[in-house]
Amino acid sequence: MSAYRHILLASHGTAGARAAERAALALAGAGAQLSQLVVVPDFWKGMMGDDWLNNASTRDVYARHVERQLEREIEAEVARVRADAAARGLRYARQIVLGRPAECLVDCASRLRPDLVVIGSPRPPRAKGLRSRMDPDTLLRGLVVPLLVVPYPR
Predict the structure, then answer these.
(1) At a CB cut-off of 8 Å and minimum separation 6, what does 47 contact?
(2) Which of 69, 67, 114 is nearest to 93 (CA)?
(3) How far apart are CA 8 and CA 44, in angstroms?
């Protein structure tokens, strides 16, 4: 397999995403660009908690808390991938966006024009975790570069 000069990696720290990270790092040529896209699914936009948040002030405080926690988790994932890229002599850039994962990935790929897009496969049935899935139809119709879907680790 040839080494790629620019890889767009959709990764957010799950087991499947980490498998995609390992594949992207292995496929990148010396001095290549690794661009990481982290998509915060748009369902987080309306995250305001439960009925116990009975006034606007409490709801706003809770929303800011959720946003800060999500930001900390994303920055930890970004720092980990950035360090892995640096250890392999790769250039690194990241983008964090809010939206529908597949649409955001297609948009990012059309702007960055990578040689390859790498994603992890969906979790197997009954595996715990958030299911913010990529819409394969959107990806297959929208991407104009090769797509590698890395199998979920066993």
Answers:
(1) 63, 66
(2) 114
(3) 23
| pLDDT score, position 44 | 56
What pTM value is reported for the model? Answer: 0.85
- Tens-digit pLDDT profile for residues 11-39: 988 889 999 999 999 999 999 999 999 99
Q: What CATH class is the domain 4-150?
A: alpha beta
Looking at this protein, which amino acid is placed at residue 106? V
Tens of pLDDT, residue by residue over 41-58, are 876 555 555 555 566 676
Q: Where are the domains of the chain?
A: 4-150
Structure tokens at 53: 């948040």
